[in-house]
Each structure stands twice: as C-alpha cells, then as structure tokens.
Amino acid sequence: MAAGEGVARYQLGAGVAAGLTAVLAAVVILLMAPIWLGPGEPVSVGRYLEELELVLATLVIPTVFAMVIATVYWRADIPDEPAPRKGALGGVVTGIGSIIGFGLVYASIWGTWPIGPLVFVAVLLFIYVPLFGAIVCPLGALGGWAYERLRSGPRGD
Predict the structure, then answer these.
(1) Inter-axis angle of helices 52-77 and 129-151, to 10 degrees?
(2) What average pLDDT does range 44-66 have in this prediction?
(3) Fewer CB within 10 Å: N-end or C-end of the chain?
(4) What values do phi and psi take at 29, rounded to 5?
(5) Alpha carbon of 28 to those of 12, 31, 36, 68, 120: distances in Å?
(6) Contact by Cβ (8 Å): 76, 140
(7) What DSSP string runs through 10-25?
(8) How far is C-alpha 146 from the geometric centre of its chain's CA atoms?
(9) Residue 84's closest CA among 74, 76, 75?
(10) Model-level pTM?
(11) 62 with 22: CB under 8 angstroms?
C-alpha cells in the first residue's frame, strides 16, 4: 500500500481482532476479581453491579485503546503479506498500550492521583503493567498471531 492511500481492510480487521481480544482479556480479569480483592471480600453479582461503572470501563476503555493501537501498529509495521510473528508482537504492543491507556484514563476520570502523578505513573509501569500484562500480553500475542495466520489463508499441508 502506497503512502497516503488510507487504511487497508486488513489493518482495520487487526483493530477489530485486537478489540475482541481486549474484551476477552477484560472478562478474564473481571472473573479473577476474588483473587484481586482478597479472601475477606465477598464477590457476587451484586458486587459487580455495585461497581458497574468500573466493570463497564474495564470492558470499554481497553477495547477502544486496543482497536486504535492495533490499527496504527498494523498500518506502520505489518507488511501487506501475512506476518504471524509480527502479528504476535503487535498483539503484545497493543496489550501494553491498552493497560497504560486504561490506567491513565481511569486515574483522570476517577481521580486516583492522591499519591501524585509521577508516583502513579511509576506504579502503573512497574506494578500494573507486569501484573495485568501477564494476562493481557499472551492473549494479545495469540490474537495477533492468529489474525495474521488466518489472513494467510488455508494451508494445503
């Protein structure tokens, strides 16, 4: 694709695939709430409904970030022919970007800056990214690899 031609269908498709992968990762993280909350906190449907805005934000914000980051990454780095390894790397980059984006938006909307912006960014980069990245990055890598692998068409072997 020559420069200035816009976004190709496969690049938009990568964004959609990354968005679906982000929803899957968010659901896995939300289902792991008993682990995050600790043994003393009861987890029930009622608890999820009490925290509905956080649940919806966990589903929506990373999905939007993943769609945008993946589309831009596929536009910038993935060649026109399928490249499963680069797709896996794109999934990891998208996952990390989505975690950071969610953390920054969450802090901006819900005002979790009492520790100061620099400390928050350090916590985000050195605690949240590794913690949630352990779930999000493998799913992103698998999603990016699978998208590029499927884009290559059926194999005859």
Answers:
(1) 50
(2) 84
(3) C
(4) -65, -40
(5) 25, 5, 12, 21, 24
(6) no
(7) HHHHHHHHHHHHHHHH
(8) 16
(9) 74
(10) 0.84
(11) yes
